[in-house]
């Protein structure tokens, strides 16, 4: 090919490229000349914001949360959203019925407006006509939330399941990774994960059936334990770490369940027996002098205080079960704990009396100020009770806080604090009554909750097609670093080490 032909080809390529760039600019300018406000032909104006899912209208969010992508739940051929904060540029998005933020836009918006609100104005189009909706606001707290959330994903199949897994989600993005899945360990059950003060390097969980045992992770080492002893009625069940990492308090339960025949109630989980014990992680011993083992009472759902000096638990007079399942009501109590001696001391301090209701899941804020717990009509396993609500007590004066902004008409149950005591994540069935989903709520310094918001997903429709419940949402200060493969190797190759009852 001679130089003349080469120059001609290069010239034509350059001309073609310039034409494309000019046309792009013309189209862009033409679009914005037709859409100076992003929309034209506004024929209807609504005085209220449109219904969106998830409902982020009027919520308070941490500045480091992932983008609040949402779906507009009104019929439309096209939608437009203008997002503006007082300290940032205006962002505009178009779609059919879904608004998905670019990560770089979201970071600029949330970082620039920490401690302030941003506003979202939406317009929807059908045919040639636009409807403009009233704006809604989202307040951006300058308090961060812990970076990761750990939960179990399980089909709500009651007795049978296929895939069960414990997962960790980076709350600052949409990255979700398995910690362990049961298709790696013989399709067994795995549950009851727990962390020491949100430390991802100190973790505990159980496997049942194949490869059964209690698994404890510390210093990147994985221990597999048999925790049923001649002094306890079962393996360790519902755990909670001592802040030192030296102890784990846990219930031991003889658990049963049955199914209701009316649609309003699905099932009941109850105990034939239950006790509370303390496990010494260092010496691999269950300590009798730190345990509550009685025949005339059911004890369950223990938790240590953040200073490690109190052991909280739930207790009810023992009853004949299942005949009296709806008559069992649990008090919320505590006893003093001596971490140096590994012993509890009496008397029992009853914080919430079960006069006509039942109280479970005690969790103390890391700053020691508030006690959060779950209230239900009866029993100790409220995740299937539509009446279950979350309550909170100010431990400085033992007054009850108003939690109406957090609760819903359906089940609100399990909860976990962020390490700075500003946020809680809790399980709720408020969206469809069938699946528990994780909601996040800001708790003010005065103990007042804000309007909760659903954990954001990259695709807002994910909750419609992912038919799994989010079980035991636990906040952690980072990612769990042991890999699923490492856990699998311990599960398959190691025999469980027998713990002692001392």
Automatic annotation (TrEMBL):
Membrane found in the keyword field: yes
Keywords: Membrane, Transmembrane, Transmembrane helix
Classification via Pfam families: PD40 (PF07676)
Transmembrane segments: 12-34
Alphabetized InterPro entries for the sequence: 6-blade_b-propeller_TolB-like (IPR011042), WD40 (IPR011659), WD40/YVTN_repeat-like_dom_sf (IPR015943)
UniProt name for this protein: Translocation protein TolB
